[in-house]
What we know:
The protein has 818 residues and is α+β, with helices and mostly antiparallel strands.
Amino acid sequence: MLSPLREDSPRRIGPYAIRARLGAGGMGEVFLGDRGDGSGPAAVKTVRRDVAQDPGFRSRFRREITVARSVTGPRLAPLLDGDADAEVPWLATEYVAGPTLSAAVRGAGAMGGAEVRMLGAGLALALAAVHAAGIVHRDVKPGNVMLAADGPRLIDFGIARDPGGTPLTTTSRMVGSPAFMSPEHVAGSGRVVPASDIFCLASVLCFAATGRDPFGDGPVAAVLYRVKYVEADLTDVPEGLRAVLEECLTADPAARPTAAALAGLLAPGAADGWPAPVTGQIAEYRRELARVGALDGPLLPGYTPTEAATGSREAPRHPTVATDFVLRPPQTPAPTPAPEQTAPPRSRRRRNLLAALAALVLLGAATGALLALREGGQGGGDPKEPATVLAGIDAQGGREGAGTVPYGRDVRPAGWHTWQGKVTGRPFGCAAGRDVLVCRTTAGSYEALSPSDGKKLWDYSARLDADEVGARISPTGQVFMPSGSTRPAVYGDQVLLATGGRIVSLDSRTGEPRWDTRAGSTHGFESAPLVADGLVFADIGPTPQGAQVAAFDLATGKEKWRKPLVGDNLAKVDEYDFWPLTTRDGVLYLRGQDGLRALRTKDGAELGRREEGQDSRCYDALIRAPHVYCAAYTYSDDGQHMAVQRLRTPSLASDGEIPLPDGVTDDAALAAVDDHVVVLVRTGLPWAEDDIDPEIVLAGRDDGRILARYPLDRRSFSDPVNAVSLPVIVADTLAWADSTSLYSVALHGTGKPGPLRTTALKGAPGPETRKDYDTLQWGNVLSDEVLPPEVLPVGGAVYVIQHGGQVLSVPLPGASAS
């Protein structure tokens, strides 16, 4: 529906006088415009000024306009005009006075078989025109289908693919909407073909006929699994229509009908108009358009057009198209201020490094659906800081995200003693400092305990807008958690959260906000905030430019700089992950589309880059001066293989790799590195009967010689589950935990390991049997899964956070408890 203009809304865009606000899109805002020449209303889409400053984006936007102009045909909202070189780039399409299919079904219920046939035949004709131009739409979904009085319209070519195979206005996300993807979408954006649009259209028609998503609701991973294996629920689809849709919903793209053929299959028995409730919705849109058109100027806050202004509230009995209405231009156009910033739906990053450790087979790993436990190392700050400034500890350790923590008795919490406590929810990523221990829960909230005695300090629930796309996975509104939140970060007396599209600083003792900054994306983050040099670093995105990294002032939350993480290889953008990894010596290390990058923390200037390809990516970077240790993974029929490469800081120039023995890196993860050793975790695959026994491997950092191997409880991969934490090096001790005990090995200052020491954890839950539920229907319900414990050492005290919420505080073996 039409909304009043805001104070900062433009009053003119190109030749269009702006009359009302239609909503927000991925690149900016969308307005109702009128040229004043009787050509009818237009939907004018603008681009945010910050996005427009990127020459690469303007080039892609220019191609989008060119491609959209090349597509003509029935049931399309045609491009009317556009200017990629304007100060604020824009494009205008025909305005369709009517609801989206998603809104129509929510408001009026499912359609009958005849109406669905009419809908499908029209959309198939639209796709036939799109495909004839050599384009794949790639995002056919209910929200991109408008219902006009004379039939449906297919809109939004913002992620279309041109004949050369290059995504247009591309982001770093997997393109499409989970419930309305095809198996080719799940396999990767490079696999999407015209027949993929047919599969998606069939899903849209199932939704129209039943009011439900054909592949169900629930976690994204579960939806993607059902899409990949074509497990659609067509139970309530009318029988004749069901047979047609089954032809479209086949796994083989070549077996699906073409768009033109599908139009022919759907035309017989099609209705000649919408059901009465939908007709009523369309009539209201048309009446509203007429009322705004009767104004002498734009629709402004606090002003409601009178019924008399339209001459009549009655819509024509047999309306034709929206362009029957002629808007009068405003008398005095105003200057054009900057459009309000908005952001597109977020994506979920793929990550498989610790999924096996957690025994969580989160389906859809290859497509970015994994909810990984290792969300980027918690960076430190300047290593010259005094030892009493603690940059916070998480499951990856401390300052360099290298799985190592200084001993630092001077940062032990005041009055600390052994204790047992409890987090109310299921912990899913924690951090600790001298003043606070704080955990994110599977419900997306945060709970804080006193590190001295375990008493609850505060809790925090992220501000989530129920209308934000990032909180939903389908038109039916199923919400999955944690929504857009990451593990917390602790720095001194602050707790930093990246949640709900905001960067939030809380007082560590009281939980009171110090500052709260909208980060430029309403749809969440991929990794925890990193803190260094008086700045907070966070990934932002996706945005119309793709993923970005931004730096915020630690004291005020004010944004200091922002840089893109997307390079020029747009055709491959959906195959990469984007997130900051860690910091040291004034340098931020992060993953971008082109590989590992090093940026200067104070201004984002690039200092180094490691180019990489699909077959060798630096998924993890652990810093131990003078090197960055890169865990580069390759994949074959024999499994996952890892090489630990040395890269010089900060140039990231290659300096060889650790010569680890053959076989030891099969299905392994790089967990920690210090001056003498590297620590690997070999997990095997929890669902496969392979010959890899889970173990922690200790090897020489320089020569790769195996120093020790510590078998893990095989129950990590069967019921009951005894999940194992990440190992961490605490000063001169290697430590890890499971659901019963804390394990430690003294390294004696040279990396030469002593005997394994086992300390029983009083109050630990012990191995747990997973709850029985339908994973094909729901994917992995995080609150019902057995998550691995986390080990957070602070000043000689060790906090072991268990999957059931138990928090056990004990002394590090060999250290004094006082």
